[in-house]
Amino acid sequence: MLTFAAASLVLVMIPGPDQALITRNALAGGRAAGLLTMVGGALGLSVHVAAAVLGISTLLVASATAFTILKVVGAGYLVWMGIATFLSARRTMTQKTEDADPEAAKLDTKYLRHGFLSNSLNPKVALFFVTFLPQFLPAGHNVFPRALLLSLAFALIYLLWFSLYVLTVDHFGKVLRRPRVRARIEQVTGILLIGFAARLAFQSP
Asked: Within a 10 A sphere around the Cβ of 185, how many other Cβ atoms?
């Protein structure tokens, strides 16, 4: 379990779409928006956990057509979010410093949706649970309890790490939300999201 926890933490810490979206939303909507995006990401993980336990993920990886469809949809979503982030950066550049506070009044489930769709539409997450998780399962037929325990452990590590990350972003919020600084971060985030989309588009099962 300790080996699994350490490996999972390293994987969670690797920059990816989750971190990019959480940063984007934490700057736009404050701590609550970042945490909602994180929870949405965890819910997206749960979709792949359930699919892996039921054997659906194995069928997805085995079917080139199904994998390609999910890959294209997931990559398209990341491109759309990247473009939206670029447009947000243009608006941010025109803001005054006093207007750069988080949009707490506009907080809604869109942040939850961003995190959920990012993970649930990502076939790389399905590959993770099909290839990485079984390495820590005991030989035998009744592996469901162990698989569920490891999946819950991974989700907990995900939530703890990104909670700390959101708090860190929020702590430095006054500096990071200055219009020019935030616009630059959004521009970089937009590039990263499109880059993640391109990498996903060339992913093979």
From this structure: 19
